[in-house]
């Protein structure tokens, strides 16, 4: 597309010059305009800051023209109430500006209706504390882990090579190395692009066991042990389910299964790559925790955890019962909210299956507290985490750290064209088309992702300081409040039930008793 447009302008320029020589002088004005466009097109192809201009020279400037007048367009629609609801500040603007190193301050106060039912806010202190010199970090590794790892409050959530281009993966990994945060590989396997920048990796193992599978698609312990020994692999994450489509396996369209992708995944070239809905290495909660212990041994003591989008509270309690029975615990659990997910998924799953992050996160946190396991396991939260307030909110709800996928994609240039599944991403982020992917300059986008993550974590630390908190462990549910009626607001401590350590083991409260009784370590199915 890029060379076609520039070539077309070049041909038009030659024709215009011929017409000017043999015809009217007025053609020289056309020649001047075409010459300016040709120079602009050449500049667009050679510059490295804007991927959309590298793929769509000249034409891509229309996007930036519309972006420049967007506030006026938004106000136009607000005044006419076309969308039927008050305007909420565009988080995308914050991500793009932080990635570009621009401060995010805005004028004229909040644009959110703070009297709207459901509005949530963090409680500041009249005695704020100084901001920390360095952002807080989280040490992941339970009593059975011999190689714990220090995590940032915000990390790159799981996105595979295949879903993302090689250049996007390289940029994210380079940013992780520069900023000291972790980069989850996604379930598509551990590839040279994940290892290229030297960033800390969370190697994700899905039900397809891509990159560590036998010829018939089962888990291969020898391949796993070899790859897990790589110095860049700091943690291993077993994917049980994901927010975008809990209960079904991942899908990589046939158009994206290149020879290179097929090699790293161990699947046929040019055929749709579908992960099974469930794992073959285990089928019960007890077998799951035993698999965790097996991976920890094979990896030489590295932190092992699992990721899930919560569906039933019984599932979570069954896993907790298995942990107690076997005295085996993962080092971390990542809770994926149903509102999250960057992968293509059926609409019905995206909108109607799985618990939102708030409910899933508090379910897991309380289940671990109630079974006396919370101090052995760190909890991550993933699902539309984009700004500093999102991090603080999730820490209050029970997380120790957060992961972001969509925001990280936007930091490396994603414009949410929603063409990921077609292999025609206009900015080279979510494509395996090398002509499109070349538009994404790795060095530039590495810097942008680094700046976005650093600025967002710094903002979270500043918010906590404004709340009078200098240690995330001091955050309590009393510090997050929600408006429940037009005249009343209540804290999370009042709105939700919070279990005390070991309460489920001693005597389950009536509100949990039914699910606790139905959960068994030997089945994910409720025993009613």
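Q: What amino acid sequence fits the structure above?
A:
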């Amino acid at each position: 597309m890029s060379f076609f447009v520039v070539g077309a302008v070049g041909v038009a320029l030659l024709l215009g010059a011929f017409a000017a020589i043999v015809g009217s002088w007025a053609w020289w004005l056309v020649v001047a305009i075409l010459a300016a466009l040709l120079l602009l097109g050449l500049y667009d192809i050679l510059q490295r800051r804007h991927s959309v201009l590298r793929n769509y020279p000249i034409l891509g400037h229309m996007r930036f023209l519309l972006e420049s007048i967007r506030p006026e367009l938004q106000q136009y629609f607000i005044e006419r109430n076309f969308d039927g609801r008050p305007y909420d500040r565009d988080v995308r603007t914050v991500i793009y500006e932080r990635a570009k190193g621009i401060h995010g301050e805005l004028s004229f106060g909040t644009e959110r209706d703070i009297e709207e039912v459901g509005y949530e806010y963090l409680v500041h202190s009249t005695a704020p504390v100084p901001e920390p010199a360095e952002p807080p970090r989280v040490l992941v590794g339970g009593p059975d882990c011999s190689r714990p790892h220090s995590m940032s409050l915000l990390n790159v959530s799981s996105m595979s090579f295949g879903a993302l281009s090689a250049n996007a993966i390289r940029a994210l990994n380079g940013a992780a190395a520069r900023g000291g945060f972790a980069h989850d590989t996604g379930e598509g396997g551990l590839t040279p692009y994940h290892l290229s920048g030297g960033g800390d990796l969370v190697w994700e193992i899905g039900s397809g066991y891509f990159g560590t599978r036998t010829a018939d698609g089962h888990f291969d312990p020898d391949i796993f042990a070899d790859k897990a020994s790589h110095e860049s692999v700091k943690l291993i994450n077993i994917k049980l389910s994901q927010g975008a489509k809990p209960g079904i396996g991942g899908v990589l369209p046939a158009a994206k299964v290149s020879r290179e992708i097929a090699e790293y995944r161990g699947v046929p070239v040019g055929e749709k790559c579908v992960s099974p809905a469930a794992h073959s290495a285990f089928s019960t909660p007890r077998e799951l925790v035993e698999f965790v212990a097996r991976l920890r041994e094979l990896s030489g003591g590295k932190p092992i955890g699992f990721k899930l989008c919560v569906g039933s509270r019984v599932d979570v309690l069954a896993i907790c019962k298995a942990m107690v029975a076997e005295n085996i615990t993962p080092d971390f659990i990542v809770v994926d909210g149903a509102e999250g997910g960057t992968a293509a998924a059926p609409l019905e799953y995206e909108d109607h299956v799985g618990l939102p992050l708030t409910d899933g996160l508090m379910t897991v946190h309380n289940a671990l507290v109630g079974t006396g396991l919370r101090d052995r396991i760190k909890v991550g939260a993933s699902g539309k985490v984009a700004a500093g307030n999102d991090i603080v909110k999730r820490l209050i709800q029970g997380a120790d750290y957060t992961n972001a996928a969509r925001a990280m994609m936007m930091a490396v240039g994603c414009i949410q064209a929603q063409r990921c599944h077609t292999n025609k991403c206009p900015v080279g982020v979510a494509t395996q088309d090398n002509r499109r992917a070349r538009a994404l300059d790795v060095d530039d986008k590495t810097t942008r992702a680094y700046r976005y993550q650093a600025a967002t974590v710094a903002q979270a630390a500043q918010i906590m300081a404004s709340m009078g908190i200098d240690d995330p462990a001091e955050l309590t549910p009393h510090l997050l409040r929600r408006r429940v009626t037009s005249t009343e607001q209540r804290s999370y401590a009042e709105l939700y039930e919070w279990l005390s350590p070991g309460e489920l083991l001693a005597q389950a409260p009536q509100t949990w008793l039914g699910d606790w009784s139905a959960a068994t370590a030997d089945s994910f199915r409720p025993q009613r």
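Q: And what stands out in the fold?
A: The longest strand covers residues 233-239.
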